[in-house]
Structures are given as structure tokens and as C-alpha cells.
Design goal:
Elements lengths: L4 E3 L4 H26 L7 E4 L5 E4 L4 E12 L3 E16 L8 E10 L2 H31 L1
Parallel strand pairs: 1-5
Antiparallel strand pairs: 2-3, 3-4, 4-5, 5-6
Length: 144
Amino acid sequence: MTEKKIDNPVSDEARDEHFRQHADAIVARLNEAIARFFRTNRPTVHYEKGNDPVIQLDGMTIEIRPGVHQQPRIGNRIVESPAFDIITYKHHPATLWQPEDVEDVPLATERNPIRAAEVALVEWFKIEAGNWFENAGILAALEE
């Protein structure tokens, strides 16, 4: 199998700069959507502008980070463009043989900053709704 060649690879600096250019718009869109759709139990949005820029939704439930989108092309070539990675974290409790661990779980990679905000908010809602239904089921079982 032949190896694919990456045309115009995106540097870490270019990726981070693209993220910083759009981060304020993403935060504004998230806050606007949260105010519009959530009357109670609103997630918080936090933007860290440091060396590792990240937008956090509700603590560390969902994060939007600088990413790279790879588009396959004809002739075993790949074109890279700056994007936004939406991730969450999965907690693995400690066992007798393994220590507690947290792993990154990629949810999506979006090139459009507004779409990245939408995906992050939808994924946050899915997690919150899943937690609510799980807790409601446990409570119902306990009441029986």
C-alpha cells in the first residue's frame, strides 16, 4: 500500500492562530444559544487564551480545541485545513489492578466555527439528558 502525501500541512502555529481568530465568535454563539434555549441548568462557557487555547463547556464536560481537518484527494494525496476538534472525557474508575484514568473521546472535527459551537452544545445536551434519564431510572428502581 502506498503512503498518502499531505499537501500543504497545517503547522501548529497556524492551527492555533485560526482557532484564536474564531474563538470569540464561538463563545458568543454558545452564550447566545444557551440564553435562548436553557432557562435553568445552563452550562458555563470558559475560554482559555494561553499557549494551549481551549473553549470549555460546563467545566470539562465538552471542549473545543484547535484541530486539523484532512480531506482525501485523488492520487493518494491529503489536503489539510485548520479546524475545530470537539472532545469529551470518559472516566475510568480505579480497579484493583489499574489506577483511575481519564481519556479523550473525540466527538467531531468541524471546519466551520458556528457548526463547532452547535455540535458542542448538542453533545453537552446529550450527556446531560443521558445522565438525567440514568438517574431517574435509578431513583425509580429505588422507590419500588
